[in-house]
Amino acid sequence: MELRQLLYFVKVAQMEHVTKAAEELHVAQSAVSRQIHQLEQELGVDLFIQKGRNVHLTAVGQLFCSRVETILRDLELAVNEVHEFLDPEQGEIRLGFPHSLGIYLIPSIVAKFRQIHPNVKFRFKQGAFPSLIRDVTMGEVDLAFISPFPESHDQVQGDLMITEELVAILPPSHPLAGEEAVHLSQLKDDKFILFSKGYSLRPIVWQACQEAGFTPKIAFEGEETDTIRGLVAAGMGVSLLPEMALFQTNQLQPARVRITDPKVTRTIGLIHRSDDKLPLVAQSFRKFLLEYFASAPK
Q1: Which of 11, 60, 100, 118 has its CA at 20 to 30 Å from residue 26's CA atom?
Q2: What is the sign of the dihedral through the CA atoms of 80, 85, 86 and 88?
Q3: Rounded CA gap, 16 and 282, in Å?
C-alpha cells in the first residue's frame, strides 16, 4: 500500500468522479484508475460502486475513507511540524520555569522576544526543581529556567543566567521593617514562612539561617510566592524571597530589607537535554536569552 494510492483514493471519494479527480491531481485518468484497482486488490474489497458517470463509496469504502483521511491529516500535521522545527520564525517553544519567575521575569522576556519574532508560539509548564529536571529529560519541554542552576548533571546541560540576591520580607509592623539592612541573625526569634520541601528556595533559606547560627522556627509552609508574601504582610511571620518575586500584585505588601550577613543568593540557569538537538526556534530563543542577560545591569 502506497501513499499515492491513498491520496488518489481520497480524492476520488471527494469528487465522486474518476476523471475530475485525475484533473485535480494533474495526472492521467488511467493512472488514477490503476492505483484504485491495485488498492482494492490489496484490500480484497470493492471501495467504489459505479452509478452512471459517478462513483460512490461502498459501505466498507466509507469506513476505510474516514480512517485514511485521519491518517493523511496527521501526516500533513507532522510535515508542518517538521517545517516549523526547521524555521526559527515559526513553531512553538515549550518552556518550563519555577513559580517565582512567573510574576515578572517570564512575561517580560517572552514579550521582548515576541516583539522580534511575532509568529512564535509558547507553551508553558511550571514546576519545582525535580519536576523541571524530569520535564527536560523526558522531552516534555525544550528549555527550562531552573534554580539552583545544576552545574553538573548527567542528562541536562545549560547556561547560568542570573545570580540573584534574596531579601528579608517582614510584616509592616515588625521592629526592623524600617531598616535599610539587617543581619539574618536578627531574625532568629521570629517565626518563618518557608516554601514546602521540594522547592529550591527552601534549602537556600534554611542553609543561610544555619550559617547565621540558628535553625528557623517554621510557622507555615507554602507553594506559591503570593501566598508567602501575603502571610508575611498579614503578620504571620518573616521570610526570604528573591526581589523579582516581590513585584506588587495586590495592596497587602510586606516590608523588604536587605540582608548583609550572610549574603543570600540563588542561581538561575537555562537548561536543555544533553543528548537532543533543540528546534531552531528554541535555539533562537536561547541565543536571545544569552544576549539579554549578558547585557542586563549587574
Answers
A1: 60
A2: positive
A3: 45
pLDDT tens by residue, 168-182: 999 999 999 999 999
Q: What distance in Å separates the CA atoms of residue 32 and residue 19, rounded to the nearest whole number?
A: 8
Q: Give the 3-state DSSP-derived string for 127-195, with helices as H, strands as E and coil as C.
A: CCHHHHHHHHHCCCCCEEEECCCCCCCCCEEEEEEEEEEEEEEECCCCCCCCCCEEEHHHHCCCEEEEE
The span from the CA of 71 to the CA of 176, in Å, is 67
224 neighbors 103 (Cβ within 8 angstroms): no
Cell of 156: 541536562
d(CA 19, CA 229): 72
The least confident of 1-10, 71-80, 178-187 is 71-80
The per-residue pLDDT for 41 is 92
Question: What SS3 class is residue 11?
Answer: helix
Selection from 80, 104, 107 nearest residue 164 by Cα: 104
Mean pLDDT, residues 14-39 taken together: 90
For the stretch 109-143, pLDDT in tens is: 999 999 999 989 899 999 889 999 999 998 889 99
- For residue 80, what pLDDT is reported? 65
Residue 245 has pLDDT above 70, yes or no: yes
- DSSP-derived secondary structure for 74-123: HHHHHHHHHHHHT-TTSSEEEEEE-GGGTTTHHHHHHHHHHHH-TT-EEE
pTM value surpassing 0.70: no
